[in-house]
Design a protein that fits this description.
Blueprint (H helix, E strand, L loop, with lengths): L1 H17 L22 E4 L3 E5 L4 E10 L36 E4 L11 H6 L6 E4 L1 H22 L1 E9 L6 E2 L4 E2 L3 E8 L2 E8 L16 E2 L1 H10 L9 H17 L4 H8 L4
Helix pairs in contact: 5-6
Length: 272
């Protein structure tokens, strides 16, 4: 009986330790991405997803990564699955990506960071954690950031990560579900005495010389918050003031961060 009690207690403690609920995060500015005004649904299990019905996609994902649990290589990949927590009207299927030209990209929670536990790794294959990514954005840019994420988790012991998605005013859609394709992504890494932010455009523009270097995508963290706070991508209709606001922000982005200037100018052409 004593052994059974200890076993149950260890399972409970393990579950609590690995719960990825953003409510338990000590990083105060993460919680703004997961309020009811920003999210149509908040899905919490091994990580937290802010899900958009309009986008049929995650807008933000929070995950806590433990350095002593991450692995270098994935032994076996589970299949993608439609998340039953999302109603059929707003859910996406793996088949939405077929022949679309886009990869099924792990958004906030990467499989390699959760390979220590079958349940946790399987959860990363929920379509609520998957976004359309160009092949190079998925296979090179995000791979570089996810490797860096694991390295920082090992270095700092625990890493808290929020991944954000941004859409242009008239996003492309794919599949029968009309899944909207994000134009860019951001990652915010926070550890003890440590914070880094990264911004990645969802394009196939990729420099083979330094594309695998996460520092290529590093940006001042205030820029990530500044773009999110404009929230212009969520508007159902665009006023002249909306357009003016986004154009000013993109021009500022191009001037202050030359390595992102080319993509910022591309985005400017899409603003109505």
């Amino acid at each position: 009986m004593k052994n059974l009690t200890l076993l149950l207690l260890s399972v409970i403690i393990s579950s609590v330790a690995w719960a990825g609920d953003v409510k338990d995060s000590k990083v105060a500015d993460y919680k703004q991405f997961f309020d009811k005004d920003s999210c149509d649904q908040i899905l919490t299990d091994t990580f937290t997803i802010c899900y958009s019905h309009k986008r049929k996609s995650p807008k933000a994902v929070y995950v806590k990564i433990y350095g002593d649990k991450v692995v270098k290589d994935i032994d076996k990949r589970p299949p993608f699955f439609t998340d039953k927590r999302v109603s059929k009207k707003y859910a996406t299927k793996s088949s939405d990506y077929t022949n679309s030209g886009y990869d099924r990209g792990h958004f906030g929670a990467s499989d390699a960071s959760h390979d220590h536990d079958k349940k946790h790794q399987k959860a990363t294959y929920s379509m609520a954690n998957i976004v359309p990514q160009t092949p190079r954005a998925n296979r090179y840019k995000f791979v570089a950031l996810e490797r860096h994420e694991r390295e920082m988790a090992v270095k700092h012991g625990v890493l808290e990560n929020v991944t954000l998605a941004y859409w242009n005013p008239k996003p492309k859609t794919i599949g029968k579900s009309k899944l909207q394709v994000p134009s860019a992504f951001a990652k915010i890494y926070t550890g003890k005495g440590y914070r880094e932010c990264f911004f990645v455009w969802n394009t196939d523009v990729y420099d083979m010389k330094d594309g695998a270097d996460p520092n290529k995508y590093k940006v001042p963290c205030e820029k990530v918050f500044e773009i999110w706070e404009t929230d212009v991508g969520e508007a159902d209709s665009w006023s002249p003031e909306d357009s003016k606001q986004l154009k000013a922000l993109l021009k500022k982005y191009a001037d202050q961060m030359p390595k992102h200037a080319k993509h910022a100018k591309m985005m400017l052409k899409m603003v109505p």
